[in-house]
């Protein structure tokens, strides 16, 4: 039973690491790419567009496949599976973040930028003082949707030997020790896979609904001020 | 929009932009160079690693995998559209006893990760004595998830139509059924076409999840070919070939979505919703909602 608890704890930890570390990578990379896509440098725009279009049209499973199997071959050394999965998630999600930021910038009425330009502000000032503060508000709800998608996508790492909530069932069946006395035990020990998977599904539904609730709260909070 | 953000560049700005452009090129070239160097250094360009692609039988395997991917995608796409319409109509129902449960079903189906749903079908159901093939698991999971997302898109489309459409429908004597079927849904579908097609791209991408539950689709075949020792385990070449096929397929479908969206923008018939840029389904629908809200405030500002 101790071992089972340990496995569950590790699985939750794996999912959280994937979510938060992947989210940070995605936000940083996505912000850079999003900035490239609205920048005055044509080449930067082109590079950003190619990156976004390619990665968005690649299945996440394929991106992870590439990172999990090909990168260790190319670098010629073993690399921590969870690290590779996290980078893959970050690289994949960054494209969605970049698009969200770009369309957020585009939702700010043109008059705002024109007025700022008329006041004599430069590109940096227009962005930091006028556009981004307004874009931020309209970006928050879709950004939360991207993060919700990221949370659900962490399960894909289950296929690439990363212990997380998506793969805990398989690990449980390998380490099965105690026999189950009641239905609850059958659920947590992976004795009854259907119940275990249902439990995991419920965990995800609760987490996603929690994030969706947070999204609505933030949306309402910032919508009033506009 | 981006043209308003900055002036026509002067000499200093032009110089700076040029420097930034060169830096971007250098970074990209460095990344490409690094990749090619590593590919070369680990011997991925040797003839032995690519020889596997010289056999007809191997290509038949790849085609077979491709067929598995496409057949799952087609069935799942059609099923998701049907389920989407049913759920959307349910959510638009006037009766709370239909609307509320359907709303919950949509929310829950959207919240369960597709992979977990596939595992539930494939590994979970046998415990209660129902054997499910990987194909069925993949298709049902994709229908459930994409159907619920499409339902939200269609519903958002219907709700974004001007109220006058519905009222005019009732005024000429149509019943609820007629108003929805003849007036609201056609317009909503037209307005949401880009979102619907980009959701189909998501379905196509998600067929790759079947790889994890041993559905023999394209990625599964790639992995299999990549571990053939007599050809020197050509995992990287196999991933390059298979990945290109995947990306080409999705790009093709995305291009269709893009063309449809462009044509709609020009068509005077379509209501101008501007459903964002498609892509991530939840983002797209959320964005529509956000835009609708913002649009109202914009009017007040102007």
Automatic annotation (TrEMBL), chain A:
Transmembrane domains' residue ranges: 16-36, 57-75, 81-98, 118-136, 194-214
Pfam families listed in its UniProt record: BPD_transp_1
Main location: membrane
Membrane topology: Multi-pass membrane protein
Keywords, alphabetical: Amino-acid transport, Cell membrane, Membrane, Transmembrane, Transmembrane helix, Transport
Residues of the ABC transmembrane type-1 domain: 12-215
Family: Belongs to the binding-protein-dependent transport system permease family. HisMQ subfamily.
Protein known as: Amino acid ABC transporter permease
Organism, scientific name: Microbacterium horticulturae
């Amino acid at each position: 039973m101790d071992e089972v608890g340990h496995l569950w704890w590790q699985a939750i930890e794996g999912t959280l690491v994937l979510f938060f570390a992947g989210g940070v990578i995605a936000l940083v990379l996505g912000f850079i790419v999003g900035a490239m896509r609205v920048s005055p440098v044509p080449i930067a725009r082109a590079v950003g567009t190619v990156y976004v279009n390619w990665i968005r049209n690649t299945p996440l499973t394929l991106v992870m496949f590439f990172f999990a199997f090909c990168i260790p071959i190319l670098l010629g050394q073993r690399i921590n599976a969870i690290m590779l999965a996290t980078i893959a998630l970050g690289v994949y999600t960054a494209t969605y973040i970049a698009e969200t930021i770009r369309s957020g910038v585009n939702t700010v009425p043109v008059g705002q930028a024109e007025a700022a330009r008329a006041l004599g502000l430069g590109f940096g000032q227009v962005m930091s003082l006028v556009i981004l503060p307004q874009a931020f508000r309209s970006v928050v709800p879709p950004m939360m949707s991207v993060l919700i998608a990221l949370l659900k996508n962490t399960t894909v790492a289950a296929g690439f030997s990363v212990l997380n909530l998506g793969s805990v069932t398989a690990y449980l069946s390998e380490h099965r020790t105690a026999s189950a006395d009641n239905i609850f035990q059958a659920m947590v020990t992976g004795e009854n896979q259907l119940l275990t998977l249902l439990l995991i599904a419920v965990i995800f539904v609760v987490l996603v609904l929690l994030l969706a609730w947070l999204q609505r709260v933030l949306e309402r909070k910032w919508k009033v001020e506009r | 929009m981006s043209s308003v953000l900055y002036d026509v560049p002067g000499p200093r700005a032009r110089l700076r932009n040029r420097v930034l452009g060169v830096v971007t090129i250098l970074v990209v070239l460095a990344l490409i160079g690094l990749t090619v160097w590593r590919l070369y250094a680990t011997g991925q360009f040797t003839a032995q690693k690519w020889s596997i692609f010289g056999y007809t039988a191997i290509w038949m395997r790849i085609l077979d995998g491709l067929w598995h991917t496409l057949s799952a995608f087609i069935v799942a796409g059609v099923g998701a559209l049907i389920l989407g319409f049913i759920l959307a109509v349910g959510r638009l129902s006037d009766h709370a006893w239909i609307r509320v449960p359907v709303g919950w079903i949509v929310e829950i189906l959207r919240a369960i990760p597709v992979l977990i749903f596939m595992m539930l079908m494939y590994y979970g159901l046998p415990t209660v004595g129902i054997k499910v093939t990987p194909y069925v698991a993949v298709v049902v999971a994709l229908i459930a998830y994409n159907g619920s997302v499409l339902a939200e898109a269609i519903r958002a489309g219907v709700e974004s139509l001007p109220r006058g459409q519905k009222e005019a429908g009732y005024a000429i004597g149509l019943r609820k059924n007629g108003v929805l079927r003849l007036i609201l849904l056609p317009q909503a579908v037209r307005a949401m076409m880009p979102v619907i097609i980009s959701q189909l791209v998501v379905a196509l991408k998600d067929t790759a999840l079947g790889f994890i539950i041993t559905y023999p689709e394209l990625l599964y075949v790639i992995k299999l070919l990549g571990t053939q020792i007599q050809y020197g385990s050509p995992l990287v070449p196999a991933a390059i070939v298979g990945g290109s096929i995947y990306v080409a397929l999705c790009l093709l479908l995305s291009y269709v979505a893009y063309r449809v969206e462009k044509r709609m923008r020009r068509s005077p018939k379509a209501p101008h919703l501007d459903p964002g840029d498609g892509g991530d389904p939840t983002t797209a629908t959320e964005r529509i909602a956000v835009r609708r809200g913002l649009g109202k405030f914009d009017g007040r500002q102007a």
